[in-house]
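Final paragraph of the annual report: two paired records, presented back to back.
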Amino acid sequence: MTSLAFAMPAEIVDPSVVAPPGDLYSNEPPMESYQHLVQMLLLLESLELFWKERTDFFAAGNLTIYFSPRQLKSESFRGPDFFVVLGTERRPRKSWAVWEEDGRYPNVIVEVLSDSTEDIDRGIKKQVYQDVFRTPDYFWFHPETLELSGFHLVDGQYEPLTPDASGRLWSAQLELFLGVEEGQLRFFTPEGALVPAGKELAQRAESAEQRAESAEQRAESAEQRAGSAEQRASRLAERLRELGVDPETLK
């Protein structure tokens, strides 16, 4: 069988020319636990569904952000558990290379804490997100202790966010609240409604279908009762005629 592959002629390859990396693969290790994975996917899925009509953002989880001034994959990179970049094209990416994205950094970052990573998330990463990324909104959440903290960049420094009466924190960038619901970090609308994930949307659709079926059954029952009443009235009228009484005179 003839192969369709071919090699580039050696004479036109200059080994001294190194093209700057662009579409790099993510270099992030697996999530700390299944619980961490579920939390990251929950944030990603719910936001993607909530913003399904929008085309001006990129959201990802456990994806490497490369930000080396020399455009090197081997230096200056971080991998937030969840991040959102606004004002960019909504399309799949293998990683986020800042130099390939008009110098954009995340607008929002969420780290899911664990015993092995929380010191880094509270320390080095927070410092990098503040001083280098200049990410306006930074949150961390511990799925075991349910600790939720958030910070907003003010004059180059992270200032702690104050929870509302429900214990939720406002993200000015997303224009959504972040709060704990049934042991998980979730998004909430400004009005306080839960931003649903796929499972909740499926449950809502199922409930709506069940309500529609119940309404249809009630309509059928009402129609059957009306038919039965009409039949009884017809039989009564016929019986009156047999007795010599005109039913019309009784109206």
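The closing record of the year follows.
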Amino acid sequence: MLTIDSVTLEVPAPAPAQDFYTAAFGLGPRLRVGASDAPTTGFRGFAVSLLVSQPGTVNSLFGDALAGGATTLKPAAKSFWGYGGVLRDPYGTIWKIATSAKKDTGPANRHIDEMVLLLGVDDVAATKRFYVDHGLTVAKSFGRKYVEFATSNIKLALYGRRAAAKDAGVSPDGTGSHRLVIGSGAGTFTDPDGFEWKAGE
């Protein structure tokens, strides 16, 4: 199983961004920041999903992020699948924080069960083939709608770009840099949608 070591979010000012991410989410070495002024507008084509154990933890993480300057895209709320919401951090990255549980079973905490990188791509089937050719194994696939790969540490999933934007509560329009680098043992390459991978350190 391929391990995705980290995702690096590129920002104009890394030091305050690192402070924000540490205080809001506490993801440790899974989340890094790098310096970049690469032009980017609108939807960057991806979101990071944090899966947790209960609604109280969703609220705790949401509250910390909002206190640090994030803005709400979808308020945390109950749904048929559980409880969750979506926000955009002060540096433009979209975060989905959710749980499949509908009730708390204990005190709220900051433990994140799973981190998932959701890429919005133009052609799910073509990008799926690209990643399989680069050594990734498909764990789940729903035709041209959604693909999840068998990766550890950080999970990787593909949506169609419009579906990913709709799920996040934003317009699918956007241009320029993704401002994202994926670190893993898969090697150094750029996928069909311009997402950059670098060999893990």
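The mean pLDDT is 95. This concludes the annual technical report; the extension proposal builds directly on these records.
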